[in-house]
Amino acid sequence: MKARTLTHGGTKQRALIFETGDRVMAELKAFAKKENIRAARFTAIGAFQSAKLAYFDWETKRYQEIPVQEQVEVLVLTGDFAWKGDEPVVHMHAVLGRRDGSTIGGHLQEAHVRPTLEVMLTEGGALERRLDPESGLALIAPEVGA
Fold this sequence. Notes:
Blueprint lengths: L1 E7 L2 E9 L4 H12 L4 E18 L4 E7 L3 E13 L2 E11 L5 E21 L4 E4 L6 E4 L5
Antiparallel strand pairs: 1-2, 2-7, 3-4, 3-5, 3-7, 5-6, 6-7, 8-9
């Protein structure tokens, strides 16, 4: 992954360009930790050689995996960074386009890039995640980390 810092009206923005074989979740998390990015939002387009999506089942309080074992276009990818304790948490959702024009979407858990993924990231502030007892998920607590 290559990174370039951009600025727009005083807002810190970055372009993160992934290459074939890059592991999206691992690289984004490592980047957030290295750069100490406490809160950010991002969007991306590109393509994956494979991915693992998931759907959160409210009844079981577990993610149901949705494997994607084919080349797909990243039509929409959006997400955010926040922290839980000493670790950044990358949360993102994706809509992926298949060869036949159909789509598949969900919570992105894992993806391998081919040939590129262009991520536009906007930083700002600090956000923390806290365990939500009802869902069992670590959700952003807007009152924490300000």
